[in-house]
Write a structure and sequence with these properties.
This protein is an alpha+beta fold and 156 residues long. It is 50% helix and 21% strand. Strands 4-3-2-1-5 form a 5-stranded antiparallel sheet, sandwiched between helices. The mean pLDDT is 93. This is Histidyl-tRNA synthetase.
């Protein structure tokens, strides 16, 4: 398995897609029930293959990721050729960027001496989707990129 298995909730939400996945392998509902009962290891493998296919599809479309902690923001723009990063560090120990109060403070004080910025870019490894997945595993969330784009505008 290249990525991680989808959760039970995710699998339930993707039930129609999973049925289509089984159908592409000529596995009927009755056969699937039999496989789960008689060959649980094979059923597990099918779930893993399906999960990897879903992850591949999602990762191929991801353009922006955000990883926000108490005093840091890591905002990624995943372009065709590289990963671009805006990194923000808040030096005020009373601020938690994960709260509305902390984020409002940041918006008012983003140009103060209490905020440091770093920009960077990095080429992908041989497996672009795995690079994206690794960022997600480290806590990044898929976004539409509004925050990254805001930074792009203010840094101009």
């Amino acid at each position: 398995m290249k990525y991680t298995r989808l959760t039970q909730q995710q699998l339930e939400e993707l039930h129609p897609e999973f049925i289509n996945f089984l159908a592409t392998q000529s596995i009927t509902a009755e056969e699937w029930a039999s496989i789960k009962e008689e060959k649980p290891a094979v059923a597990e493998e099918e779930l893993d293959v399906f999960s990897d296919l879903v992850w591949e599809g999602v990762l191929a479309k991801v353009e922006y990721l955000e990883n926000i902690s108490e005093m840091h923001m890591h905002l990624f723009h995943l372009t065709e050729k590289e990963m671009k990063l805006f990194s923000v560090k808040v030096l005020n120990p009373e601020i938690d960027l994960r709260t509305q109060v902390g984020f409002d403070w940041f918006k008012r004080n983003f140009q103060s001496d209490y905020v440091e910025y770093l920009t960077a870019s990095k080429a992908y490894s041989d497996d672009k989707n795995k690079d994206k997945f690794d960022l997600i595993q480290q806590g990044a969330a898929i976004t539409k990129g509004e925050l990254y784009q805001w930074f792009e505008r203010i840094m101009e």
